[in-house]
Amino acid sequence: xxxxxxxxxxxxxxxxxxxVSISVSAGDVVEPGQSVVELETDxxxxxxxxxxxxxxxxxxxxxxxxxxxxxxxxxxxxxxxGDEAESEGNGDQEKEKKEKPETxxxxxxGDGSGEESPDQASEEEDSEPETEDSDETVDDSESEPSKxxxxxxDAEPEESREGIIPAGPAARRVxxxxxxDLAKVKGSGKRGRITVEDVESFAADSxxxxxPAVSAAPVKMPDFTKFGxxxxxxxxxxRRATAKHLSxxxxxxxxxxxxxxxxxxxxESWRQRNLRAVEKAGGxxxxxxxxxKVVAExxxxxxxxxxxxxxxxxxxxxxxxxxxxxxxxxPRGLLVPVMRDVDRKSITDIAVEIGEISERARKGxxxxxxxxxxxxxxxxxxxxxxxxxxxxxNHPEVAILGVSRSRIEPVxxxxxFVPAEILPxxxxxxxxxxxxxxxxxxxxxxxxxxxxxxxMLL
Length: 458
Hints:
The chain has 458 residues and is α+β, with helices and mostly antiparallel strands. It has helices at residues 90-99, 104-107, 118-127, 132-140, 147-155, 169-178, 196-206, 237-252, 265-273, 275-280, 287-301, 347-362, 436-451; strands at 2-6, 16-22, 29-30, 34-40, 45-50, 54-59, 66-68, 72-78, 255-263, 307-310, 315-318, 324-326, 328-330, 333-335, 338-339, 376-380, 399-403, 407-413, 416-430. Helix 7 (196-206) runs parallel beside helix 8 (237-252), helix 11 crosses helix 12 and helix 11 (287-301) packs across helix 13.
């Protein structure tokens, strides 16, 4: 049975990706579950498996192509000759035969080729009622929109096209969570497709308490060539996602940053004494590992910081789990892989895991599931430099802790000045939920524990 393999849904918020490599060619027989394409999304590089398996008859994409979810990647012949091919071929013809009387025109394509004539495709669109999910398959399974699709789009105004709003599963899920009516959202994707960012922006605009969002219309740039030579570099997938995500966060949450200085002289001595023990376990005992553990305990004591705000429902979502994102600087841009259940892990476990997720992120091997589900983010620029900075909250979280480079400074203690290692901390928080006093208490608790590492055990 002939069919077309389309790009499946890869994860929440993933709408498209760039093809990095193709591991099959026409004539190859693919085993069920075998990886056929490596795809770089705005979140990670992932392998796309062909779950059904079969013989490849035509590869329909090339390395470097940008493809959307639902776009056809290749055609194939099912290995078992079954009826479950994801195509617009014989499977759809059989469905058509069951749903309407056979005519002389429809008999003309019953040669088992699996291909449809344009007239037949148009007849199917006119005769078959479509649900929201089936619309998704029709819109995205063609490499180019057909004439029938274009006529259908022109014939009906958007507000009357009930059941065929062009939005992917991820966008629909976010819309349900935020109580957004997709019929009122204007899509910015291809052919008016509604993306997750469109839904989140609409929800932010509709919130009476959120700050007004900036216009989605691009700002016209001056002609820089008047002043000298220039070079244009297109956004990478990661940079595009970062720009949209941080713009959404900045325009949704009123940011305030609380700064503090922490005396980590005792912590540094403790860290030096325990370096080898952690190295034997396969990790590196860094200040980041210690801070992540301390933050995990702080989130249990200050639940407002382990929360998200749903302005659509006007409620606070308090999380009973502790997942912490670690900002990692990679050649592709900033990624934030998430560590799960950090409160249940030792500092040694955390140190080992930070090394592993950072290495995977730098190599572009981070899985999509590793980039979701965070409660709080820690970003450390101390290895580069700087004294303080104002990190942007990682939406939909409500706070992020920035760590800068420590330095030796004189501290007045017991009647004299003594050298001490001072670590700058910068906590940015969402002022819609967290007040200044809350933030000060949160940072003070973290500072007290870092200044006396054993106090957390008490």
